[in-house]
Amino acid sequence: xxxxxxxxxxxxxxxxxxxxxxxxxxxxxxxxxxxxxxxxxxxxxxxxxxxxxxxxxxxxxxxxxxxxxxxxxxxxxxxxxxxxxxxxxxxxxxxxxxxxxxxxxxxxxxxxxxxxxxxxxxxxxxxxxxxxxxxxxxxxxxxxxxxxxxxxxxxxxxxxxxxxxxxxxxxxxxxxxxxxxxxxxxxxxxxxxxxxxxxxxxxxxxxxxxxxxxxxxxxxxxxxxxxxxxxxxxxxxxxxxxxxxxxxxxxxxxxxxxxxxxxxxxxxxxxxxxxxxxxxx
Length: 281
What we know:
Layout: E1 6-9, H1 15-26, E2 30-35, H2 42-48, E3 52-56, H3 62-76, E4 81-84, H4 99-127, E5 131-135, H5 148-168, E6 174-180, H6 201-210, H7 223-231, E7 238-241, H8 245-262, H9 264-269
Parallel strand pairs: 1-2, 1-4, 2-3, 4-5, 5-6, 6-7
Helix pairs in contact: 3-4, 4-5
């Protein structure tokens, strides 16, 4: 029988974080479950007892992140899966954005993730094992109107994760960016919006009209995919969740390739001629 894994999860009070925490506990793993409000974890604590350590944590408090990692490692003696799930949406057009709200969104989604990774890496390097899961999105691959700042955090998570994978592979540490599509996780209830300008009302109406409810998945259906991922000896650096994402992303990338090819002459000319080193004598 495989050894139980030790998880460290941020944003475990709701959505994917809560679902995957419960699934890990249900199969016999142990979890350091963190959330800003631990009351949402009380039921899991009652049900799973000593297999869960519930800690209050705001990932924007860097010192608290390092302390939570330390406590979790001290409590269970090991860390196997680091799930950087804490985050929220800030959805507005760029002209509408309130700059302090944009900074707060980046602080949580990006720098919160970075703090968790930096706190965990010294432990994982010594172990020479571990799997870091970052929470990206389909919106970390292709952007869309009214999502600019939130999606910028997800694009940044993609870049951070790709860099991290190359940096820590020699230490036996695995890294995967999880890229969900649309799921009924209650994400909307934690999404913030700036005051809306009437000039963009038609854009928002068109976006709502184009939304297809059939594309919204059941978050419980993701459990097997995540458990397969963390049990894999050779996990991918990226994992999409949802059955419509790959065809859509193929179209997105094909469009980009076509644009690059169309403008290739202009691009190539920008290279110029390498400067000659020195001068002939």
